[in-house]
Amino acid sequence: MILLKRIYEPASAADGFRVLVDRLWPRGISKARAGVDLWAKELAPSTELRTWFHHEAANWDEFVIRYRAELAAQPDAVAALRAQCAGRTTTLLYGAKDETHNQAVVLKAILESGDAAGEDR
Known about the structure:
Blueprint: E1 2-6, E2 17-20, H1 31-34, E3 38-39, H2 47-53, H3 60-72, H4 75-85, E4 90-94, H5 103-113
Parallel strand pairs: 1-4, 2-3, 2-4
Protein name: DUF488 domain-containing protein
């Protein structure tokens, strides 16, 4: 099971394996407080894509297309994260305020799809 949670929310035992999926470490959060088991910054959107998107809901559909393309270019990294998540509760952590328009939503769908290339089935 893969869950999504803002890194600014308190960690809990129910989170299981906690994976930060932001390229930059979130402001104001110490590593101890974050309780991150893995920082998968290589799977976060590129700096160029993150800057372009700027968490604007109007850019969401194009962001999803571009981010999926970035992930499809690194199938081994996606497969490695999927393997680490297998058989246990995993929480993908993100810093964005928008709970529906962020990279963790896209990455969760890809991890759950089971396809190494990052395409939905």
